[in-house]
Design goal:
With about 350 residues, the protein is of the alpha+beta class. It has helices at about 5, 80-90, 120-140, 145-155, 215-220, 225-245, 250-270, 280-295, 320-330, and strands at about 15-30, 35, 40, 45-60, 65-70, 75, 100-110, 165-170, 185, 200-205, 300-305, 310-315, 335-340. Strands 1, 4, 5, 6, 7, 8 and 9 form a 7-stranded mixed sheet that branches. A 4-stranded antiparallel sheet has the order 11-12-10-13. Strands 2-3 form a two-stranded antiparallel ribbon. A hairpin with a 5-residue loop joins β11 and β12 (about 310-315). α3 (about 120-140) packs across α4. The two termini are about 30 Å apart. It binds (3R)-3-hydroxy-3-methyl-5-(phosphonooxy)pentanoic acid. The site of (3R)-3-hydroxy-3-methyl-5-(phosphonooxy)pentanoic acid has 14 residues, from α5.
């Protein structure tokens, strides 16, 4: 899907510097399992956060071969640079310009990098956007977010959703004609106004490194005994949550979101070999939230990424009650809380 004019580019004549920023996103319907080359086994749906951002500056210089250097908060990170080099090498057949490029990246995350929040979606979306801006500059064409989403996906699947604000869908579905496995789609107009500006309190129970990478987890889905049932379930949940979002049925949205989070971790536990990314404190938080919801009648729901930390999602109108609950009842089991919200504008 890349423009032919980009494929004809072989070298740059002068250096280009540019800056991009991209946010993290949290999936309500989880992408877990791949098919083909970085294509999702099932459609996913996420909300893009406002304040958890990666800011990056890029310097593209002509070179005889591909060179990549990456600095995170001014500290050189050769392992991250190698990953980006591998990614650019994988694109060289289609984009020969990446054979003769010297790329230096300086990155900064607005959220603490030992916070346990995956920075791959925000950092790879910042990279995808930078590459598209760079290639568009070389060919005097306009920035196309769809291409940025496509290139971000090839770097890290869920990053393709971070190109858009608000509610974002990724993967081919009958619900949207323009949907694709290749890039994400903004679906804000499909969501009831009462559900705009949801809040996310990211409850950090452990900020350590993950024991099993997402890459390994996705590939374990290939021969997972529940793969076909999971795909059917994800498609059903996707359809149901879309209807609930459209009708402003927050309770229904929350129930589906929690079921998706628990399923994600159930898939990990029932992989071969099985593994557990939840910590004892993750379960404490889940139980406390369920009790609070039942007793106080406040509709706050959890979702969980591939890690032990718990995202609590709630509406603006419940902000005070939920935040008081988190500060008083959850704080003893938490390392930290990152307060974020959705961004629509
Ligand atoms: O984008 P990846 O390859 O890091 O996979 C992300 C998978 C989950 O975060 C667990 C779910 C999702 O849809 O974001």
């Amino acid at each position: 899907m890349l423009p032919d004019s980009w494929k004809r580019l072989t070298h740059i004549s002068s250096e280009v510097s540019l800056e991009t920023s991209a946010p993290a996103n949290i999936a309500l319907i989880k992408y877990w399992g791949k098919k083909g080359h970085q294509l999702p086994a099932n459609p996913s749906l996420s909300l893009t956060l406002k304040d958890c951002l990666t800011h990056s500056s890029f310097l593209f210089r002509p070179s005889d071969s591909l060179q990549v250097k990456l600095y995170l908060d001014k500290v050189e990170k050769p392992t991250f640079a190698q990953k980006i080099k591998n990614y650019l090498e994988s694109l060289q057949n289609e984009l020969p310009i990446f054979k003769s490029l010297d790329l230096t990246i300086h990155s900064h995350n607005t959220f603490p990098h030992s916070s346990g929040i995956a920075s791959s979606a925000s950092s790879q979306a910042a990279l995808g956007e930078a590459l598209v801006r760079f290639l568009a500059l070389q060919t005097s064409t306009d920035f196309d977010p769809m291409l940025a989403s496509h290139l971000s996906r090839l770097a890290s699947g869920s990053a393709c959703r971070s190109i858009y604000k608000g509610f974002v869908s990724w993967g081919e579905t009958r619900e949207f004609n323009e949907s694709s496995d290749l890039y994400a789609l903004n679906i804000n107009t499909h969501v009831h106004p009462s559900l705009h500006y949801l809040r996310d309190a990211i409850c950090i129970v452990s900020s350590g490194e993950k024991e099993v990478s997402s890459r390994a987890g996705h590939s374990q889905m290939n021969n997972h005994p529940f793969l076909s049932a999971r795909i059917v379930q994800a498609e059903t949940n996707y359809k149901s949550i879309l209807k609930a979002l459209n009708e402003g049925e927050w309770q229904r949205v929350g129930e589906i979101m929690e079921s998706e989070a628990l399923t994600l971790h159930a898939m990990m536990m029932t992989s071969n070999p099985g593994y557990i990314l939840l910590a004892p404190k993750s379960l404490d938080v889940i139980r406390l939230v369920q009790t609070f919801r039942r007793e106080a009648g406040v509709l706050v729901y959890f979702t969980i990424d591939a890690g032990p930390n718990i995202h609590l999602i709630y509406r603006d109108e419940d902000q005070q009650k939920v935040e008081t609950f988190i500060k008083h009842e959850l704080s003893p089991v938490l390392e930290n809380v990152i307060w974020d919200r959705m961004d629509f504008d």
